[in-house]
């Protein structure tokens, strides 16, 4: 904590700043390919999560305005995002702030425990509190009206389990779908709770989630929904590739369109223009051109 002492007449007033909450940082893929080099952060007030954010937050906000947000749940509903960190760091490097379930790990030791979907709500609560807290690094730098909830595999089910949360504007299901199953507190019924746009990003016939995602796409009939299929992506997609590979680029097109209002990015989905995405297919419904 940073302390300052101010003399007012004969009265000493001690003020304590809340700066310096960061207790550990990590750089992934040299900070990503975006205009704002990203870092992964462990926060003193959020020890069971990782914050992926531009390193020079003030500069990013000056250029972008208040940053859109994503909360993220991991494959296997695990308490670590290390297997997804390349995608999440890459997203952050393009002017986003991501909070993922699980404490920051410097290396993958393959030790993990299961988590609860409610942690996504905790992440959103923390973001709201930090944006309102005078002295926080994030004070008035976050756009709370632009929140994406994303998850991979079982993490996608966790997203659906909290789908009612009114703060969520768009949902991102990576290698995930409910189909006719129940998982992580979610089921087919959870689809009716979705109140914003949805994208499924899956990995072709070898992805065990693809058929469930197709069923979800067919059943959702009240909000805009997209189905982006990397035909040779398998269940792990490109999470392991530098800068998160094609999964990160597809996710960024979606986020830039849905949360930043960049209509030029909609051509990937609405035309669809897949010139930058060989061996992908896209289906959409309920979008207005």
UniProtKB/TrEMBL annotation:
SUPFAM superfamilies recorded: alpha/beta-Hydrolases
Domain of life: Bacteria
Ribonucleoprotein in keyword set: no
Molecular-function GO terms, alphabetical: hydrolase activity
Keywords tagged on the record: Hydrolase
Protein's name according to its UniProt entry: Alpha/beta hydrolase
Protein species of origin: Aestuariibaculum marinum
């Amino acid at each position: 904590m940073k302390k300052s002492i101010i003399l007012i007449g004969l009265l000493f007033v001690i003020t304590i700043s809340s700066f310096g909450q960061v207790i550990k940082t990590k750089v992934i893929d040299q900070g990503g390919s975006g205009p704002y080099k990203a870092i992964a952060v462990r926060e003193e007030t959020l020890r069971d999560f990782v914050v992926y954010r531009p390193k020079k937050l003030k500069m990013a906000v000056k250029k972008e305005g208040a940053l859109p947000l994503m909360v993220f749940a991991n494959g296997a509903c695990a308490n670590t995002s290390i297997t997804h960190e390349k995608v999440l760091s890459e997203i952050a490097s393009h002017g986003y702030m991501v909070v993922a379930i699980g404490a920051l790990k410097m290396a993958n030791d393959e030790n993990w425990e299961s988590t609860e979907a409610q942690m996504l709500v905790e992440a959103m609560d923390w973001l709201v509190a930090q944006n309102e807290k005078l002295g926080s690094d994030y004070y008035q730098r976050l756009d709370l009206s632009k929140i994406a909830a994303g998850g991979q595999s079982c993490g996608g089910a966790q997203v659906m389990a909290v789908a009612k949360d009114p703060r969520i504007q768009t949902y991102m299901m990576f290698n995930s779908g409910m189909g006719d199953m129940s998982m992580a507190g979610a089921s087919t019924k959870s689809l009716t709770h979705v109140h914003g746009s949805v994208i499924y990003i899956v990995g072709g016939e070898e992805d065990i989630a693809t058929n469930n995602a197709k069923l979800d796409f067919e059943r959702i009939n009240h909000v805009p929904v997209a189905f982006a299929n990397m035909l040779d992506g398998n269940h792990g997609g490109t999470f392991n590739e530098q800068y998160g590979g094609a999964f990160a680029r597809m996710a960024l097109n979606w986020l830039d369109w849905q949360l930043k209002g960049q209509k030029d990015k909609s051509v990937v989905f609405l035309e669809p223009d897949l010139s930058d995405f060989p061996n992908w297919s896209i289906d959409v419904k309920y979008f207005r051109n």
